[in-house]
Write a structure and sequence with these properties.
Length: 231
């Protein structure tokens, strides 16, 4: 049907965001991943994940800065380093070390193997994963960027995978759902996932983001903590 999962073809645009790639793979965004406007993003986020516009608008607008088109972007444009894309990602390499766009199982293994002995990921494990991923970048990437802004974006992304794949109030998500989301960029509907009945918005994401940031401690900026456009 209209929103069944289809793998992208060779000419379809995909980027560093598993959330948007998944929406394109299910036809909530254009399956070719191109000519995406702000309103297209807001509608797709609501229909696919029950994310309210208030929490997507800023990211969508900043995403436009990566495009040479006046009002639209392609998913691959979002790889522009230092706009939204950052180092110490959960599932992609740092741009200075390799491919910052495509899913990488070695990078993802830190998240995949987190919270051992449990069937779920949660706020505590998400914070620990962020700490471990940053430690890896600090060790291996002499070019690493690590600022207040990148920390904020990283914690927002962690809150997003817990929220869209799990309970957006508790911040608890089944491991198999999160793994399918990252590895296959697919909604795990056959496995029992359902779109959240609770809207995902500032009231749910903001406190979760703060708790994840706290759980990723200790943290300090690296080098010049240059304020970004988001702060
Ligand atoms: C990264 C989820 C919307 C742009 C990520 C990551 C997650 C995520 C979990 C982290 C990937 C990783 O660390 O490997 C979502 C969800 C969304 C959404 C569930 C809901 C619709 C957006 C929007 C934009 C955006 C609206 C901008 C137009 C990005 C970019 C990255 C990213 C550029 C790469 C950051 C990096 O890891 O370097 N997203 N996102 N996302 N997202 Fe999204
Ligand atoms: Mg990255």
């Amino acid at each position: 049907d209209q929103h069944s999962w289809q793998a992208p073809g060779p000419n379809d645009s995909r980027g560093p965001c598993p959330g948007l790639n998944t929406l394109a793979n299910h036809g909530f965004l254009p399956r070719d991943g191109r000519n995406i406007s702000i309103s297209t993003i807001l509608k797709a986020g609501y229909e696919g994940y029950h994310i309210e516009a208030e929490i997507l608008t800023l990211a969508a607008k900043v995403g436009l800065l990566t495009s040479d088109q006046p009002t639209t972007f392609a998913l691959n444009d979002l790889k522009a380093h230092g706009v939204i894309e950052h180092d110490a990602s959960l599932s992609r390499q740092d741009v200075a070390l390799g491919d910052n766009v495509r899913f990488n199982e070695t990078i993802f293994s830190t998240l995949a193997n987190s919270n051992p002995g449990s069937d779920v990921y949660n706020i505590t494990s998400a914070g620990q994963v962020q700490h471990a991923r940053l430690a890896d970048s600090l060790k291996n990437n002499p070019n690493v960027t690590n600022t207040d802004t990148t920390l904020f974006i990283r914690s927002a992304e962690s809150a997003f995978y817990l929220s869209v794949m799990g309970d957006p109030v508790q911040g608890v998500a089944p491991k198999n759902f999160v793994q399918i989301f990252f590895r296959e960029e697919r909604l795990p509907i056959e496995e029992g996932w359902k779109r959240s009945s609770v809207p995902i918005n500032i009231a749910t994401v903001s406190p979760m983001l703060d708790l994840i940031t706290a759980a990723s401690a200790p943290w300090e900026p690296t080098g010049n903590n240059c304020p970004g456009i988001l702060t």
